[in-house]
Specification:
Shape: globular
Number of strands: 0
Distance between the termini: 29 Å
Number of helices: 16
Strand content: under 5%
Radius of gyration: 21 Å
Structural class: mainly alpha
Largest sheet: none
Length: 421
Amino acid sequence: MKDFFNKYKGISIRNFFNLVLNQGINVLVALILTPYLFRTLGEEKYGLVSLALTVVLLFGMVVNYGFNLNIPKKLALIQNDLKAKEELINDVVSTRLIFSLALAFILFISINYAGLFPGYGAILLFSLVQLFNDAVYPLFILQGFDRLSWIAKANALAKITYLVSVILIVNSTAQAYWVNFLLGSTGLMVHFILIVLVYRVEGMTFRFAQISKVKFWIRENFQFFSSTVASYLSINGGFILLKSFVSESELGFFALAQRVAILLRMIPIFLAQSILQIATRLYTNNKNEFEQYLNRAYKNGVALTLVVAVFLAFSSSWVVRILAGEYIPLSANLMRILGFVPFIGMLNVKNVIHILIREQKRVLAKASWYTAIITCLFAAVGSAYWGSYGLAFALLLTESFSFWIHKILLNKVLDDRPTML
């Protein structure tokens, strides 16, 4: 038993370390770029750039279509079957490419001819390249093959290229539209090279999937897609709503605090991604060992996010000075509140793992949408009456609701299972 845990603990730690390293590069780039962009663009343009990125990433959820939730698990089980994994990966990549092209066209028409997204349409238009980056991003492949170090290295290259490009090109508020364009284009370049490399190393050949297969995956993954959109709205929907209730300056101050919170909110996601493949194999072979493995990872994750939240509560003033180049009381106070979002989010990891390994797509979609609806309601009310403070507390409250919603719906499914005699 000890050898068993040492083996899988090593794989989990390696996966988690690679994901943390991946995010560590994002944090490092954010520490350099955020103060530069905040001073160069001003709080108003900085807020609009963040808003445009939030919107295009929401449409990116359609491109991803929930494949990151179930395809890595499937690839982990067919990794040694060349034909099966080639067909599966081609199906996913083809579907993503179709979605990215269709959405880019729809948004182009909406911005230029329908007059949607007033005030930041030009910035959003240049952000559309991010959709094509999402289409070729091979995280789901490398996650299924336990090669997350490849993603960490590619992300480092993409983000360093992005950092240098922004500093060289963006020198005034008039160049704000380049920020998201450079983020998407550098990512697209690096990730396209990476996915080509993956195909060559695995001996696979890309063939565009038949339309019938694309239709199959649209139906098959709809519940997972629905849950990812709802989850994204739960995290970022409030920020989109906030624009209707506060000034662009306050929107920029909130974006500064949220930037840190979003980076830290990835910790629970990283934990789930790093243990999902192993948890799937254990659940299939030995459920007792699966529960022990999951409980260990869960307790470590809760402890880590609690420490991070407490540390940020005491250091937010210092963090704001680094990011903004000056002390902004509103951003510092918001950061203290939002720092506890990852901790509460971590409480839900065990529920999500149980849902995913049991293929309970309907439960996940239902729980995610209940949470999203509550988030939007609380965010709208909080933003309307208390501005950015109201939104910050709304996000904390809805993370708590999310935990109980997932737990209750999961327990209901488990209680309804027929007893095997």
